[in-house]
Amino acid sequence: MTVDPPIRLGRAADAAAIAALSRELIEEGLPWTWQPARVLRALQHPETNVAVVDAGDELVGFGIMEYLDTDAYLVLLAVRRSDQRKGRGSALLRWLETAARAAGAERVRLDARRDNAAARSFYNEHGYHEIAIQEGGYHGAVDRIRLEKWLRA
């Protein structure tokens, strides 16, 4: 049996670490749009959850979920490379999906880079389906794949 790592809501003090992980793992090769100030705004927004997982004193993963009318949008999800394949990303995703269900969301939508086969496989393994491709969707440089998962029948 696998035990999920402790997950907590993000704090303002986490903004710089979250931004750095986004830059390294999600926005690599693209303009850096999730800088600390933007992460801080997400942390403070009433319609957004930022969940984090720590290993010791260090933040090793995070997820940002926005809640819309009947959908939730997974804005970002990342786990430090050295901590991948240890269940931390899966635990973060389950936590955020549970929060989305509690908020009344019927489905979760997200976008992933077309060139990120590992992320696409991760989401497919968790029940997400690829529904659209937007060529050049990330700053005209990288294709975007839209995925979704229905939470309710």
UniProtKB/TrEMBL annotation:
Coiled coil: none annotated. InterPro entries: Acyl_CoA_acyltransferase (IPR016181), Bact_Acetyltransf (IPR050832), GNAT_dom (IPR000182). Gene3D superfamilies: 3.40.630.30. Keywords: Acyltransferase, Transferase. GO terms for molecular function: acyltransferase activity, transferring groups other than amino-acyl groups. It comes from the Bacteria. Residues 5-152 form the N-acetyltransferase domain. Transmembrane segments: none annotated. Pfam families: Acetyltransf_1 (PF00583). PANTHER family: AMINOALKYLPHOSPHONATE N-ACETYLTRANSFERASE-RELATED-RELATED (PTHR43877). This is GNAT family N-acetyltransferase. It comes from Ramlibacter aurantiacus.
